[in-house]
């Protein structure tokens, strides 16, 4: 059951009704994501406007769909992974191509360069190095496309995070679980956790470190929770900030 009410034609005020009518016109129905987002007409209007603007960019519809699927997978949004898996299938993507997209891979070199750059942006929270930009450009990714990739990450992260908060009921065919959310609700022992450059954790002595050893971890909602055994403090980082987790049983 959704944690936020789903606005319907029967419960909507005039402003909400206009927005839901526009969603119905664009999509042929009102998915629960949009019905939940309509609790704030300002949020739904902003989301629709940004999505509409980005459809007029340089990136093709197929690549935009691949980006949406990749971002949803990285952010651990099962709702959006299901929605974009269905959309990708309708666009002619095979099951293998959909699985590859979720790992930032594609048969087309340009599309793969876009996905790899997007994955790097998310993993580093935008702090990409010159080599990442050069690698994308080497495969024909132009400056406008680089800008749009960031825009699509922002757009899809908005819907992903909204779903984490609202938890609307899934009204798309279920897909394989997303990578980010935690399919591990219990604490698990880890030999070490390493963050990407620029991010730190506090070790048992309170010192900032990129790698912390002998901890317990829990992955939930696109975030990694870390605690040092026998201490009450839990540290939390977003999944893109994590470079490597080595579990104790591996």
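Sequence proposed for the structure above (250 residues):
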């Amino acid at each position: 059951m959704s944690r936020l009410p789903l606005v319907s034609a029967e419960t909507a005020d005039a402003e909400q009704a206009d927005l839901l009518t526009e969603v119905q016109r664009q999509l042929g129905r009102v998915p629960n994501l949009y019905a939940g987002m309509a609790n704030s007409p300002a949020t739904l209007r902003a989301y629709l406007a940004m999505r509409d603007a980005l459809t007029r960019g340089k990136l093709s519809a197929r690549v935009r769909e691949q980006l949406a699927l990749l971002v949803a997978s990285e952010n651990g949004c099962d709702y959006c992974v299901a929605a974009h898996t269905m959309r990708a299938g309708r666009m002619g993507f095979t099951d293998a191509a959909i699985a590859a997209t979720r790992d930032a891979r594609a048969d087309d070199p340009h599309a793969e360069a876009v996905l790899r750059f997007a994955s790097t942006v998310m993993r580093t929270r935008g702090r990409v190095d010159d080599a990442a930009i050069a690698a994308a450009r080497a495969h024909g990714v132009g400056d406008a496309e680089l800008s749009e990739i960031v825009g699509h990450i922002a757009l899809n992260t908005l819907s992903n995070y909204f779903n984490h908060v609202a938890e609307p009921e899934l009204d798309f065919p279920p897909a394989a679980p997303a990578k980010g959310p935690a399919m591990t609700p219990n604490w698990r022992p880890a030999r070490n956790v390493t963050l990407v450059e620029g991010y730190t954790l506090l070790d048992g002595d309170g010192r900032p470190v990129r790698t912390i050893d002998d901890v317990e971890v829990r992955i939930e909602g696109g975030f990694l929770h870390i605690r040092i055994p026998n201490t009450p403090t839990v540290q939390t980082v977003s999944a893109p900030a994590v470079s490597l987790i080595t579990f104790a049983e591996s």
